[in-house]
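Appendix B. Raw example, untouched.
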Amino acid sequence: MQRVIIRASYVLDRFCRYTAVGFLVVMLIMILIQVVARYLFKSTPVWTEEAARYCMIWGGLLGATVSFRADFDPRLFHTPESSARWKIGVAAWIRSLCVLVFLGPVFYHSYAFLIRTWQRTSEALGISIMWVVFVVPVTIAVILFHNLAKLIRSWHGSA
């Protein structure tokens, strides 16, 4: 079961990585369309600005999950890598608890947040804002799953 969770964390990380890059590429294409339309045609399509903004949100938050799994996220202290196994395990438990305390309430209230944004629509694209902010609970769920996999790796010494 432990290997399955660790492997699933790896697969989920790859999916988030490629999806984040895809959103950022689409964002760059939207910005390019804006620049070309503004300077060549003197008129920009309104939807490109919104699409670029929403792609930036999704790409950035999915990129945060990749950063968390790769240990490039900001933190107060680094887990000792050359200490005794029990020290590494305790440090991982403390870090996991901090992640849970920080992200748990946000995840808990995400449902109400999504419901509040369901009726709001974007001006240019006409889509529900809920689809834009849906990335928040998705990001938190992925980070919590990666956190579980890191905890398992720290206690069992798996890579």
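End of appendix B.
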